[in-house]
Design brief:
The chain is α+β, with helices and mostly antiparallel strands and 596 residues long. It has 20 helices and 19 strands.
Length: 596
Protein backbone atom coordinates (compact mmCIF):
# COMPACT_ATOMS: atom_id res chain seq x y z
CA UNK A 1 0.00 0.00 0.00
CA UNK A 2 2.87 2.40 0.78
CA UNK A 3 3.95 2.31 -2.89
CA UNK A 4 0.45 2.51 -4.34
CA UNK A 5 0.30 4.72 -7.40
CA UNK A 6 -2.34 7.46 -6.98
CA UNK A 7 -2.71 8.23 -10.69
CA UNK A 8 -6.41 7.95 -11.50
CA UNK A 9 -6.19 4.97 -13.86
CA UNK A 10 -3.94 3.12 -11.42
CA UNK A 11 -6.40 3.57 -8.54
CA UNK A 12 -9.43 2.57 -10.58
CA UNK A 13 -7.63 -0.55 -11.82
CA UNK A 14 -6.56 -1.43 -8.28
CA UNK A 15 -10.15 -1.12 -7.10
CA UNK A 16 -11.46 -3.25 -9.99
CA UNK A 17 -8.85 -5.95 -9.33
CA UNK A 18 -9.57 -6.02 -5.61
CA UNK A 19 -6.00 -5.02 -4.78
CA UNK A 20 -7.26 -2.27 -2.49
CA UNK A 21 -10.42 -0.43 -1.47
CA UNK A 22 -11.29 3.27 -1.23
CA UNK A 23 -11.29 2.98 2.58
CA UNK A 24 -7.74 1.56 2.52
CA UNK A 25 -6.64 4.34 0.17
CA UNK A 26 -8.02 6.99 2.52
CA UNK A 27 -6.09 5.48 5.41
CA UNK A 28 -2.98 5.64 3.25
CA UNK A 29 -3.73 9.27 2.31
CA UNK A 30 -3.80 10.30 5.96
CA UNK A 31 -0.67 8.28 6.72
CA UNK A 32 1.18 10.09 3.94
CA UNK A 33 -0.08 13.47 5.15
CA UNK A 34 1.02 12.75 8.73
CA UNK A 35 4.53 11.76 7.62
CA UNK A 36 4.97 14.46 4.96
CA UNK A 37 7.94 16.75 5.72
CA UNK A 38 6.15 19.88 4.44
CA UNK A 39 3.50 20.94 7.01
CA UNK A 40 2.60 24.13 5.10
CA UNK A 41 0.78 22.28 2.29
CA UNK A 42 -2.58 22.22 4.09
CA UNK A 43 -4.73 24.85 5.75
CA UNK A 44 -7.44 22.43 6.92
CA UNK A 45 -8.34 18.76 6.55
CA UNK A 46 -11.69 17.03 6.52
CA UNK A 47 -11.73 14.67 9.51
CA UNK A 48 -10.77 11.09 8.78
CA UNK A 49 -14.15 9.90 10.07
CA UNK A 50 -16.05 12.25 7.74
CA UNK A 51 -13.97 11.15 4.77
CA UNK A 52 -14.52 7.49 5.57
CA UNK A 53 -18.22 8.27 5.85
CA UNK A 54 -18.13 9.64 2.31
CA UNK A 55 -16.38 6.45 1.19
CA UNK A 56 -19.06 4.28 2.80
CA UNK A 57 -21.69 6.24 0.86
CA UNK A 58 -20.15 5.16 -2.46
CA UNK A 59 -22.20 2.53 -4.33
CA UNK A 60 -21.24 -1.15 -4.14
CA UNK A 61 -22.72 -2.37 -7.41
CA UNK A 62 -20.21 -2.66 -10.25
CA UNK A 63 -22.54 -0.98 -12.76
CA UNK A 64 -22.98 2.02 -10.46
CA UNK A 65 -19.23 2.20 -9.83
CA UNK A 66 -18.50 2.23 -13.56
CA UNK A 67 -20.83 5.22 -13.96
CA UNK A 68 -18.60 7.22 -11.57
CA UNK A 69 -15.42 8.25 -13.45
CA UNK A 70 -13.69 9.32 -10.20
CA UNK A 71 -14.90 6.50 -7.95
CA UNK A 72 -12.93 6.64 -4.69
CA UNK A 73 -10.29 9.05 -6.04
CA UNK A 74 -8.90 11.44 -3.36
CA UNK A 75 -8.53 15.12 -4.20
CA UNK A 76 -7.79 18.49 -2.59
CA UNK A 77 -8.97 22.04 -3.22
CA UNK A 78 -7.31 25.41 -2.87
CA UNK A 79 -8.66 27.31 0.14
CA UNK A 80 -10.40 29.95 -1.91
CA UNK A 81 -12.89 27.32 -3.11
CA UNK A 82 -15.92 26.45 -0.96
CA UNK A 83 -16.80 23.10 0.60
CA UNK A 84 -19.41 22.59 3.30
CA UNK A 85 -17.16 20.82 5.82
CA UNK A 86 -14.46 23.47 6.18
CA UNK A 87 -14.19 27.26 6.40
CA UNK A 88 -12.91 29.22 3.42
CA UNK A 89 -10.00 31.47 4.40
CA UNK A 90 -8.42 32.52 1.07
CA UNK A 91 -5.17 32.40 3.05
CA UNK A 92 -6.32 35.00 5.60
CA UNK A 93 -7.67 33.74 8.97
CA UNK A 94 -9.63 36.92 9.73
CA UNK A 95 -11.43 36.64 6.36
CA UNK A 96 -12.71 33.11 7.08
CA UNK A 97 -16.37 32.19 6.59
CA UNK A 98 -18.34 28.92 6.65
CA UNK A 99 -20.02 28.12 3.31
CA UNK A 100 -23.57 26.77 3.19
CA UNK A 101 -22.87 24.70 0.09
CA UNK A 102 -20.07 23.33 -2.07
CA UNK A 103 -18.67 25.28 -4.97
CA UNK A 104 -20.22 23.98 -8.19
CA UNK A 105 -17.00 22.27 -9.29
CA UNK A 106 -16.64 20.53 -5.92
CA UNK A 107 -20.23 19.29 -6.06
CA UNK A 108 -19.66 17.91 -9.56
CA UNK A 109 -16.51 16.08 -8.46
CA UNK A 110 -18.27 14.50 -5.49
CA UNK A 111 -21.11 13.51 -7.78
CA UNK A 112 -18.55 11.64 -9.89
CA UNK A 113 -17.31 9.68 -6.87
CA UNK A 114 -14.24 11.75 -5.92
CA UNK A 115 -13.37 12.02 -2.21
CA UNK A 116 -12.40 15.43 -0.79
CA UNK A 117 -9.48 15.34 1.67
CA UNK A 118 -8.94 18.99 2.55
CA UNK A 119 -8.05 22.55 1.62
CA UNK A 120 -4.60 23.70 0.62
CA UNK A 121 -2.40 26.72 1.21
CA UNK A 122 -2.12 29.61 -1.22
CA UNK A 123 -0.71 33.06 -1.76
CA UNK A 124 -3.19 35.14 0.20
CA UNK A 125 -6.30 36.12 -1.78
CA UNK A 126 -4.74 34.27 -4.75
CA UNK A 127 -2.40 37.23 -5.26
CA UNK A 128 1.04 36.04 -6.32
CA UNK A 129 2.94 33.44 -8.34
CA UNK A 130 5.44 32.53 -5.63
CA UNK A 131 3.67 30.60 -2.84
CA UNK A 132 5.33 32.57 -0.04
CA UNK A 133 2.55 35.03 0.88
CA UNK A 134 0.60 33.13 3.51
CA UNK A 135 0.29 33.29 7.30
CA UNK A 136 -0.15 29.50 7.22
CA UNK A 137 3.49 28.93 6.28
CA UNK A 138 5.46 28.57 3.07
CA UNK A 139 5.15 25.35 1.08
CA UNK A 140 8.31 24.56 -0.83
CA UNK A 141 8.99 22.75 -4.07
CA UNK A 142 8.61 19.00 -3.74
CA UNK A 143 12.16 18.84 -5.14
CA UNK A 144 13.95 21.32 -2.85
CA UNK A 145 13.33 22.76 0.61
CA UNK A 146 15.13 25.94 -0.46
CA UNK A 147 13.06 26.67 -3.56
CA UNK A 148 9.58 28.10 -3.95
CA UNK A 149 6.60 25.94 -4.79
CA UNK A 150 5.11 28.57 -7.06
CA UNK A 151 1.75 30.16 -6.46
CA UNK A 152 -0.79 31.17 -5.87
CA UNK A 153 -2.00 27.55 -5.87
CA UNK A 154 1.01 26.41 -3.87
CA UNK A 155 -0.39 23.73 -1.59
CA UNK A 156 -2.59 22.23 -4.30
CA UNK A 157 0.42 21.60 -6.53
CA UNK A 158 2.67 20.18 -3.82
CA UNK A 159 -0.08 17.89 -2.51
CA UNK A 160 -0.25 16.17 -5.91
CA UNK A 161 3.51 16.26 -6.48
CA UNK A 162 4.13 14.42 -3.20
CA UNK A 163 1.49 11.81 -3.98
CA UNK A 164 -0.85 12.83 -1.15
CA UNK A 165 -3.87 13.03 -3.48
CA UNK A 166 -4.56 12.05 -7.07
CA UNK A 167 -5.44 15.52 -8.31
CA UNK A 168 -6.27 18.95 -6.94
CA UNK A 169 -8.05 22.14 -7.86
CA UNK A 170 -6.37 25.50 -7.97
CA UNK A 171 -7.42 28.78 -9.49
CA UNK A 172 -5.72 30.67 -12.27
CA UNK A 173 -5.88 34.38 -13.08
CA UNK A 174 -2.28 35.22 -13.93
CA UNK A 175 -0.67 31.78 -14.03
CA UNK A 176 -1.46 30.32 -10.62
CA UNK A 177 -2.47 26.98 -12.12
CA UNK A 178 0.64 26.75 -14.31
CA UNK A 179 3.66 28.18 -12.46
CA UNK A 180 3.37 25.70 -9.54
CA UNK A 181 3.03 22.89 -12.08
CA UNK A 182 6.40 23.85 -13.59
CA UNK A 183 8.13 23.87 -10.19
CA UNK A 184 6.72 20.50 -9.11
CA UNK A 185 6.89 18.37 -12.28
CA UNK A 186 3.12 18.41 -12.82
CA UNK A 187 0.53 18.99 -15.50
CA UNK A 188 -1.38 22.20 -14.88
CA UNK A 189 -4.56 22.60 -16.93
CA UNK A 190 -5.96 26.15 -17.22
CA UNK A 191 -9.37 25.96 -18.89
CA UNK A 192 -10.96 28.48 -21.18
CA UNK A 193 -12.52 31.04 -18.85
CA UNK A 194 -16.16 30.18 -18.21
CA UNK A 195 -15.83 26.53 -19.28
CA UNK A 196 -16.06 25.53 -15.61
CA UNK A 197 -18.06 27.37 -12.98
CA UNK A 198 -16.49 29.80 -10.50
CA UNK A 199 -19.57 29.85 -8.28
CA UNK A 200 -18.30 29.30 -4.74
CA UNK A 201 -14.81 30.65 -5.51
CA UNK A 202 -13.42 33.75 -3.77
CA UNK A 203 -12.60 36.03 -6.72
CA UNK A 204 -9.25 37.58 -7.48
CA UNK A 205 -10.16 39.21 -10.81
CA UNK A 206 -13.69 38.00 -11.32
CA UNK A 207 -13.80 38.58 -15.07
CA UNK A 208 -10.60 36.56 -15.59
CA UNK A 209 -10.65 33.82 -12.92
CA UNK A 210 -10.99 30.13 -13.67
CA UNK A 211 -10.66 26.91 -11.67
CA UNK A 212 -7.55 24.97 -12.71
CA UNK A 213 -6.50 21.34 -12.33
CA UNK A 214 -3.20 19.83 -11.14
CA UNK A 215 -2.58 16.22 -12.10
CA UNK A 216 0.20 13.79 -12.87
CA UNK A 217 -0.73 13.58 -16.54
CA UNK A 218 -2.85 15.18 -19.22
CA UNK A 219 -4.96 12.02 -19.20
CA UNK A 220 -5.84 12.51 -15.53
CA UNK A 221 -6.51 16.21 -16.12
CA UNK A 222 -8.83 15.32 -19.02
CA UNK A 223 -10.91 13.04 -16.78
CA UNK A 224 -11.32 15.84 -14.22
CA UNK A 225 -12.08 18.36 -16.98
CA UNK A 226 -15.00 16.30 -18.23
CA UNK A 227 -16.51 16.25 -14.76
CA UNK A 228 -16.16 19.89 -13.77
CA UNK A 229 -16.91 21.61 -17.09
CA UNK A 230 -20.41 22.62 -18.11
CA UNK A 231 -22.63 25.65 -18.06
CA UNK A 232 -23.74 26.93 -14.65
CA UNK A 233 -26.69 29.36 -14.76
CA UNK A 234 -25.75 30.58 -11.27
CA UNK A 235 -22.35 31.82 -12.49
CA UNK A 236 -22.77 34.99 -14.58
CA UNK A 237 -19.43 34.35 -16.30
CA UNK A 238 -20.19 30.74 -17.22
CA UNK A 239 -20.17 29.97 -20.95
CA UNK A 240 -21.64 27.17 -23.01
CA UNK A 241 -18.74 24.98 -24.05
CA UNK A 242 -17.92 23.99 -27.61
CA UNK A 243 -15.02 21.93 -28.85
CA UNK A 244 -12.71 23.80 -31.22
CA UNK A 245 -10.33 21.51 -33.15
CA UNK A 246 -6.69 22.37 -32.59
CA UNK A 247 -4.32 20.36 -34.80
CA UNK A 248 -4.16 17.61 -37.39
CA UNK A 249 -1.39 15.14 -38.22
CA UNK A 250 0.76 18.14 -39.11
CA UNK A 251 0.51 21.51 -37.45
CA UNK A 252 2.22 24.88 -37.02
CA UNK A 253 3.36 25.91 -33.58
CA UNK A 254 4.61 29.28 -32.43
CA UNK A 255 7.99 29.62 -30.72
CA UNK A 256 9.70 32.66 -29.28
CA UNK A 257 11.79 34.54 -31.79
CA UNK A 258 15.34 35.35 -30.74
CA UNK A 259 14.49 38.83 -29.46
CA UNK A 260 11.64 37.45 -27.30
CA UNK A 261 13.69 34.79 -25.48
CA UNK A 262 14.34 35.71 -21.85
CA UNK A 263 15.33 33.05 -19.33
CA UNK A 264 16.80 35.41 -16.72
CA UNK A 265 20.17 33.69 -17.10
CA UNK A 266 18.77 30.17 -16.55
CA UNK A 267 20.60 28.25 -19.29
CA UNK A 268 19.14 24.94 -18.10
CA UNK A 269 15.58 26.17 -18.55
CA UNK A 270 16.47 27.54 -21.99
CA UNK A 271 17.92 24.17 -23.02
CA UNK A 272 14.77 22.34 -21.90
CA UNK A 273 12.62 24.76 -23.92
CA UNK A 274 14.77 24.13 -27.00
CA UNK A 275 14.42 20.38 -26.44
CA UNK A 276 10.62 20.77 -26.24
CA UNK A 277 10.73 22.58 -29.59
CA UNK A 278 12.64 19.63 -31.07
CA UNK A 279 10.12 17.20 -29.62
CA UNK A 280 7.20 19.17 -31.07
CA UNK A 281 8.85 18.89 -34.49
CA UNK A 282 9.11 15.12 -34.04
CA UNK A 283 5.35 15.06 -33.35
CA UNK A 284 4.61 16.60 -36.76
CA UNK A 285 4.88 20.28 -35.92
CA UNK A 286 6.47 23.07 -37.92
CA UNK A 287 7.92 25.86 -35.74
CA UNK A 288 7.01 29.46 -36.58
CA UNK A 289 8.99 32.19 -34.81
CA UNK A 290 6.69 34.82 -33.32
CA UNK A 291 7.25 38.26 -31.87
CA UNK A 292 6.10 38.06 -28.24
CA UNK A 293 5.70 41.83 -27.91
CA UNK A 294 1.87 42.01 -28.17
CA UNK A 295 1.50 39.12 -25.72
CA UNK A 296 3.92 40.78 -23.31
CA UNK A 297 2.09 44.10 -23.61
CA UNK A 298 -1.20 42.40 -22.75
CA UNK A 299 0.44 40.55 -19.85
CA UNK A 300 1.67 43.81 -18.33
CA UNK A 301 -1.93 45.05 -18.00
CA UNK A 302 -2.75 42.49 -15.33
CA UNK A 303 -0.68 44.14 -12.60
CA UNK A 304 0.01 47.62 -13.99
CA UNK A 305 -3.37 48.26 -15.61
CA UNK A 306 -6.91 48.68 -14.27
CA UNK A 307 -7.44 44.97 -13.62
CA UNK A 308 -5.77 45.48 -10.23
CA UNK A 309 -8.97 47.34 -9.33
CA UNK A 310 -10.81 44.02 -9.61
CA UNK A 311 -8.68 42.68 -6.79
CA UNK A 312 -9.71 45.64 -4.67
CA UNK A 313 -13.36 45.07 -5.63
CA UNK A 314 -13.04 41.46 -4.43
CA UNK A 315 -11.27 41.81 -1.08
CA UNK A 316 -10.18 45.45 -0.75
CA UNK A 317 -12.64 46.21 2.04
CA UNK A 318 -11.15 43.48 4.22
CA UNK A 319 -7.56 44.39 3.35
CA UNK A 320 -8.22 48.01 4.31
CA UNK A 321 -9.06 46.90 7.84
CA UNK A 322 -5.33 46.30 8.19
CA UNK A 323 -5.42 43.09 10.21
CA UNK A 324 -2.17 41.59 11.46
CA UNK A 325 -2.73 38.52 9.30
CA UNK A 326 -2.88 40.46 6.01
CA UNK A 327 0.31 39.91 4.03
CA UNK A 328 2.00 43.29 3.44
CA UNK A 329 2.93 42.52 -0.17
CA UNK A 330 -0.62 41.41 -0.95
CA UNK A 331 -1.99 44.51 0.79
CA UNK A 332 0.20 46.83 -1.28
CA UNK A 333 -1.01 45.23 -4.51
CA UNK A 334 -4.70 45.12 -3.62
CA UNK A 335 -4.84 48.64 -2.18
CA UNK A 336 -3.12 50.08 -5.25
CA UNK A 337 -6.26 49.17 -7.18
CA UNK A 338 -8.34 51.70 -5.26
CA UNK A 339 -6.80 54.71 -6.94
CA UNK A 340 -7.86 53.82 -10.49
CA UNK A 341 -10.61 55.73 -12.27
CA UNK A 342 -13.31 54.72 -14.73
CA UNK A 343 -11.25 56.48 -17.38
CA UNK A 344 -8.28 54.24 -16.53
CA UNK A 345 -10.50 51.18 -16.90
CA UNK A 346 -11.66 52.16 -20.37
CA UNK A 347 -8.15 53.09 -21.50
CA UNK A 348 -6.92 49.69 -20.28
CA UNK A 349 -9.64 47.93 -22.26
CA UNK A 350 -8.67 49.90 -25.36
CA UNK A 351 -5.02 48.84 -24.98
CA UNK A 352 -6.09 45.23 -24.49
CA UNK A 353 -8.32 45.36 -27.58
CA UNK A 354 -5.35 46.56 -29.65
CA UNK A 355 -3.20 43.73 -28.28
CA UNK A 356 -5.88 41.11 -28.91
CA UNK A 357 -6.35 42.22 -32.51
CA UNK A 358 -2.63 41.57 -33.10
CA UNK A 359 -2.75 38.29 -31.15
CA UNK A 360 -5.73 37.12 -33.23
CA UNK A 361 -3.62 37.69 -36.35
CA UNK A 362 -0.92 35.48 -34.85
CA UNK A 363 -3.49 32.66 -34.52
CA UNK A 364 -3.97 32.91 -38.29
CA UNK A 365 -0.30 31.89 -38.65
CA UNK A 366 -0.11 29.11 -36.05
CA UNK A 367 -2.30 26.41 -34.51
CA UNK A 368 -0.77 26.44 -31.03
CA UNK A 369 1.83 28.43 -29.11
CA UNK A 370 4.69 26.75 -27.20
CA UNK A 371 6.14 28.89 -24.41
CA UNK A 372 8.35 28.38 -21.36
CA UNK A 373 6.02 28.22 -18.37
CA UNK A 374 8.44 30.45 -16.46
CA UNK A 375 11.83 31.90 -17.39
CA UNK A 376 13.43 30.45 -14.24
CA UNK A 377 12.79 29.63 -10.59
CA UNK A 378 13.94 31.15 -7.29
CA UNK A 379 14.92 30.26 -3.77
CA UNK A 380 12.57 31.27 -0.98
CA UNK A 381 15.14 33.67 0.47
CA UNK A 382 15.51 35.40 -2.91
CA UNK A 383 11.77 36.03 -3.06
CA UNK A 384 11.77 37.44 0.46
CA UNK A 385 14.33 40.05 -0.62
CA UNK A 386 12.43 41.12 -3.77
CA UNK A 387 8.84 39.86 -3.56
CA UNK A 388 7.39 42.12 -6.28
CA UNK A 389 10.11 42.12 -8.91
CA UNK A 390 10.85 38.40 -8.95
CA UNK A 391 7.13 37.56 -8.88
CA UNK A 392 6.72 39.71 -12.00
CA UNK A 393 9.49 37.75 -13.73
CA UNK A 394 7.60 34.50 -13.17
CA UNK A 395 4.52 35.86 -14.96
CA UNK A 396 6.36 36.88 -18.12
CA UNK A 397 4.90 34.03 -20.18
CA UNK A 398 1.66 33.42 -18.25
CA UNK A 399 -0.07 36.72 -17.46
CA UNK A 400 -1.55 37.34 -20.91
CA UNK A 401 -3.46 34.06 -21.27
CA UNK A 402 -6.77 34.91 -19.58
CA UNK A 403 -6.73 38.49 -20.84
CA UNK A 404 -6.43 37.12 -24.39
CA UNK A 405 -9.19 34.51 -23.80
CA UNK A 406 -6.96 31.48 -24.28
CA UNK A 407 -6.73 28.00 -22.83
CA UNK A 408 -3.41 26.53 -21.67
CA UNK A 409 -1.79 23.31 -20.48
CA UNK A 410 1.49 23.41 -18.58
CA UNK A 411 3.65 20.32 -19.22
CA UNK A 412 6.80 19.04 -17.47
CA UNK A 413 9.81 19.67 -19.71
CA UNK A 414 12.45 17.82 -17.70
CA UNK A 415 14.89 18.32 -14.83
CA UNK A 416 17.89 20.62 -14.76
CA UNK A 417 20.14 20.93 -11.74
CA UNK A 418 17.79 18.74 -9.72
CA UNK A 419 14.84 21.09 -10.27
CA UNK A 420 11.96 20.67 -12.74
CA UNK A 421 11.09 23.17 -15.43
CA UNK A 422 8.07 23.32 -17.70
CA UNK A 423 6.65 24.48 -20.99
CA UNK A 424 3.10 25.53 -21.77
CA UNK A 425 0.87 24.94 -24.78
CA UNK A 426 -1.51 27.85 -25.39
CA UNK A 427 -4.44 27.93 -27.80
CA UNK A 428 -7.50 30.09 -28.49
CA UNK A 429 -10.62 29.65 -26.37
CA UNK A 430 -12.23 26.18 -26.42
CA UNK A 431 -9.16 24.35 -27.74
CA UNK A 432 -8.85 22.71 -24.30
CA UNK A 433 -9.26 19.10 -25.38
CA UNK A 434 -6.83 19.45 -28.25
CA UNK A 435 -4.26 21.07 -25.94
CA UNK A 436 -4.55 18.17 -23.50
CA UNK A 437 -4.17 15.64 -26.31
CA UNK A 438 -1.11 17.32 -27.81
CA UNK A 439 0.22 18.02 -24.31
CA UNK A 440 0.08 14.32 -23.48
CA UNK A 441 2.16 13.49 -26.55
CA UNK A 442 4.66 16.23 -25.71
CA UNK A 443 4.91 15.07 -22.09
CA UNK A 444 5.72 11.53 -23.21
CA UNK A 445 8.33 12.74 -25.67
CA UNK A 446 10.67 13.59 -22.78
CA UNK A 447 11.82 9.94 -22.56
CA UNK A 448 10.89 6.36 -21.74
CA UNK A 449 12.16 6.45 -18.14
CA UNK A 450 9.81 9.29 -17.22
CA UNK A 451 8.50 9.43 -13.64
CA UNK A 452 5.62 11.63 -12.55
CA UNK A 453 5.54 14.40 -9.98
CA UNK A 454 8.09 13.78 -7.20
CA UNK A 455 7.24 10.07 -7.04
CA UNK A 456 8.99 6.97 -8.36
CA UNK A 457 5.97 5.97 -10.44
CA UNK A 458 6.12 5.97 -14.21
CA UNK A 459 3.64 7.78 -16.44
CA UNK A 460 0.63 5.56 -17.04
CA UNK A 461 0.03 4.13 -20.54
CA UNK A 462 -1.35 6.65 -23.00
CA UNK A 463 -5.07 6.77 -23.62
CA UNK A 464 -6.70 8.30 -26.68
CA UNK A 465 -7.64 11.80 -25.61
CA UNK A 466 -8.38 12.86 -29.17
CA UNK A 467 -9.96 16.21 -29.84
CA UNK A 468 -12.90 15.34 -27.62
CA UNK A 469 -14.76 13.14 -30.12
CA UNK A 470 -18.43 13.38 -31.04
CA UNK A 471 -20.62 13.30 -27.95
CA UNK A 472 -23.73 11.13 -28.01
CA UNK A 473 -26.54 11.14 -25.43
CA UNK A 474 -27.95 7.68 -24.82
CA UNK A 475 -31.14 7.17 -22.86
CA UNK A 476 -32.10 3.48 -22.89
CA UNK A 477 -30.76 0.17 -24.16
CA UNK A 478 -27.29 1.67 -24.81
CA UNK A 479 -26.78 2.80 -21.19
CA UNK A 480 -24.02 1.19 -19.13
CA UNK A 481 -25.07 -2.36 -18.21
CA UNK A 482 -27.96 -2.41 -20.68
CA UNK A 483 -28.28 -4.92 -23.57
CA UNK A 484 -26.98 -2.74 -26.40
CA UNK A 485 -24.13 -1.00 -24.56
CA UNK A 486 -21.69 -3.38 -26.27
CA UNK A 487 -22.36 -1.55 -29.54
CA UNK A 488 -20.62 1.46 -28.01
CA UNK A 489 -17.88 -0.48 -26.25
CA UNK A 490 -16.81 -2.37 -29.37
CA UNK A 491 -16.33 0.96 -31.15
CA UNK A 492 -14.06 2.31 -28.41
CA UNK A 493 -16.62 4.81 -27.11
CA UNK A 494 -15.75 6.48 -23.80
CA UNK A 495 -18.24 7.33 -21.06
CA UNK A 496 -17.92 11.05 -20.43
CA UNK A 497 -20.48 11.55 -17.67
CA UNK A 498 -24.05 10.98 -16.53
CA UNK A 499 -26.30 14.03 -16.71
CA UNK A 500 -29.82 15.12 -17.64
CA UNK A 501 -31.54 16.68 -20.60
CA UNK A 502 -33.02 20.14 -20.44
CA UNK A 503 -36.49 20.21 -18.80
CA UNK A 504 -38.31 20.11 -22.14
CA UNK A 505 -38.41 16.40 -22.97
CA UNK A 506 -40.81 13.50 -22.53
CA UNK A 507 -39.66 9.88 -22.39
CA UNK A 508 -41.65 7.13 -24.15
CA UNK A 509 -41.32 3.33 -24.16
CA UNK A 510 -41.70 2.07 -27.72
CA UNK A 511 -44.12 -0.74 -28.33
CA UNK A 512 -43.03 -4.21 -29.49
CA UNK A 513 -39.25 -3.67 -29.52
CA UNK A 514 -36.62 -6.25 -28.52
CA UNK A 515 -34.81 -5.35 -26.44
CA UNK A 516 -37.18 -2.77 -24.98
CA UNK A 517 -36.27 0.77 -25.95
CA UNK A 518 -37.26 4.28 -24.87
CA UNK A 519 -37.08 7.46 -26.93
CA UNK A 520 -36.82 11.15 -26.14
CA UNK A 521 -39.34 13.58 -27.55
CA UNK A 522 -38.86 17.32 -27.26
CA UNK A 523 -42.12 18.96 -26.12
CA UNK A 524 -43.28 22.54 -25.87
CA UNK A 525 -44.57 22.17 -22.31
CA UNK A 526 -44.92 19.52 -19.64
CA UNK A 527 -41.42 18.16 -20.13
CA UNK A 528 -38.96 17.04 -17.46
CA UNK A 529 -35.18 16.55 -17.16
CA UNK A 530 -34.42 12.98 -18.29
CA UNK A 531 -31.31 11.06 -17.22
CA UNK A 532 -28.85 10.37 -20.04
CA UNK A 533 -25.28 9.15 -20.37
CA UNK A 534 -22.88 11.06 -22.60
CA UNK A 535 -20.49 8.89 -24.63
CA UNK A 536 -17.68 10.18 -26.85
CA UNK A 537 -16.95 8.45 -30.17
CA UNK A 538 -14.45 9.15 -32.90
CA UNK A 539 -15.88 10.39 -36.18
CA UNK A 540 -15.48 7.00 -37.85
CA UNK A 541 -17.01 5.17 -34.88
CA UNK A 542 -19.92 7.60 -34.81
CA UNK A 543 -20.57 7.02 -38.51
CA UNK A 544 -20.46 3.25 -38.04
CA UNK A 545 -22.78 3.42 -35.06
CA UNK A 546 -25.42 5.61 -36.72
CA UNK A 547 -25.54 3.32 -39.76
CA UNK A 548 -26.92 0.59 -37.52
CA UNK A 549 -29.77 2.60 -35.96
CA UNK A 550 -33.09 1.01 -36.99
CA UNK A 551 -36.32 2.88 -37.76
CA UNK A 552 -38.27 4.49 -36.18
CA UNK A 553 -35.20 5.66 -34.22
CA UNK A 554 -32.83 8.29 -35.57
CA UNK A 555 -29.96 10.48 -34.37
CA UNK A 556 -30.76 14.15 -33.89
CA UNK A 557 -29.86 16.98 -31.53
CA UNK A 558 -30.55 16.88 -27.78
CA UNK A 559 -30.30 19.80 -25.38
CA UNK A 560 -28.66 19.08 -22.02
CA UNK A 561 -29.47 20.64 -18.66
CA UNK A 562 -26.30 22.77 -18.85
CA UNK A 563 -27.44 24.34 -22.13
CA UNK A 564 -25.15 22.33 -24.42
CA UNK A 565 -26.45 20.48 -27.48
CA UNK A 566 -25.17 17.00 -28.33
CA UNK A 567 -26.22 14.24 -30.68
CA UNK A 568 -28.82 11.83 -29.30
CA UNK A 569 -31.63 9.39 -30.03
CA UNK A 570 -34.88 10.83 -31.39
CA UNK A 571 -37.90 9.14 -32.95
CA UNK A 572 -40.13 9.34 -36.02
CA UNK A 573 -43.64 10.61 -35.05
CA UNK A 574 -45.34 7.54 -36.53
CA UNK A 575 -44.16 5.39 -33.59
CA UNK A 576 -45.55 7.59 -30.82
CA UNK A 577 -49.30 6.77 -30.89
CA UNK A 578 -48.57 3.24 -29.61
CA UNK A 579 -45.76 4.30 -27.23
CA UNK A 580 -46.13 4.57 -23.45
CA UNK A 581 -45.35 7.88 -21.74
CA UNK A 582 -42.89 7.14 -18.91
CA UNK A 583 -41.64 10.71 -18.33
CA UNK A 584 -42.62 10.61 -14.66
CA UNK A 585 -39.83 8.14 -13.92
CA UNK A 586 -37.11 10.62 -14.95
CA UNK A 587 -35.07 8.02 -16.79
CA UNK A 588 -34.97 4.48 -18.20
CA UNK A 589 -33.16 2.92 -15.23
CA UNK A 590 -35.73 4.23 -12.77
CA UNK A 591 -38.50 2.92 -15.00
CA UNK A 592 -36.95 -0.57 -15.21
CA UNK A 593 -36.44 -0.75 -11.44
CA UNK A 594 -40.10 0.07 -10.84
CA UNK A 595 -41.15 -2.78 -13.10
CA UNK A 596 -39.40 -5.41 -10.96
Amino acid sequence: MVDLDFQIDALLEAYAAGVTTPADVIEEVYRRIETCPDPAIWISLVSRDEVLGAVRALPDERMEKDALPLYGVPFAIKDNIDCVELPTTAGCPSFAYSPDEDATVVARLRGAGAILIGKTNLDQFATGLVGTRSPYGIPHSAFSEEHISGGSSSGSAVAVARGLVSFSLGTDTAGSGRVPAAFNNLVGYKPTCGLGSTKGVVPACRTLDCVSVFAASCGDAAIVKRVIEGFDPLDPYSRTGRNRPLTGASFRFGVLDEASRNFMGDDGAAALYDKAVENMCSLGGTPIAIDYTPFCKAAALLYTGPWVAERYAAVGGHVELGGDDVDPTVASIVLSGKSGTAVDAFVGHYVLADCRRVIDQVWDQIDVLLLPTTPTTYRIDEIEKDPIGLNANLGLYTNFVNLADCAAVAIPAGIRGGLPAGVTLVGPAFTDQGLLSLGDRLHRSIGTDLTVCATAHGLRPARDLGEGGIELAVVGAHLSGQPLNAQLAERGAKLVNTTQTAACYSLFELADTVPAKPVLVRVGSGGEPIEVEIWALSESAFGSFTCGIPAPLAIGNVELIDGRWVKGFVCEPCALPDARDITEFGGWRNFLQRQI
